[in-house]
Structure formats: structure tokens, C-alpha cells
Here is the input.
Amino acid sequence: MKIKVELSGGLELLFNKIKTHEITFDDKKSIPLKDLIIWMKDNLLTERENLFIVDGTVRPGILVLINEADWELYGGIGYDVEDGDNIIFISTLHGG
Here is the structure.
């Protein structure tokens, strides 16, 4: 299974300043979005975990799109990510 994860709105800074990640799971046909988020925390996140994840999900203020549609249309955190999916995380919080 191959998926693409994109980060923007400043989130890429937490992931070694890399905006796009091509991720392959050879042993899976799908992965729960919740598990993908934890996998990203454990394998891609390089700093300030609390700015990305809180209580096992993305923190409030992060918009999540699945194939360019709001994740709520797909069932939110319960969605099973499938081969070819494009998951986008956009921070809507900005310092000032």
C-alpha cells in the first residue's frame, strides 16, 4: 500500500521541514487513520509532539483532508486509509 501525506500551514516544520511524504506499507492493504497518525508521530515527527497530536488524534486547529475532502465526510479518525489515498494535514493556528 502506498499513500501520500502532505503537511502545510507550518506543520512541515515539525517533520524536518519536509512537506510531502510518500509512505509505503508493504504488509497492509489499509491502515486506520488513527494508526497512521501514531506511526507518523513515531517515525516522521522530529520535534514538539504536542503541536501535532493530543490524546491519540491530531490536535484541534489542524484540518485533515482525505483525497481533498474534509475527513469528517469519511468518518474522521475512524477512516481506513487505502492504497493511493492522499492525506493532507493543514495547521490553521498561527503565532502572532
Notes: The chain has a mean pLDDT of 94. DSSP finds one helix and nine strands in the chain. The domain at 2-91 is CATH 3.10.20.30 (Ubiquitin-like (UB roll)). The helical segments are 33-43.
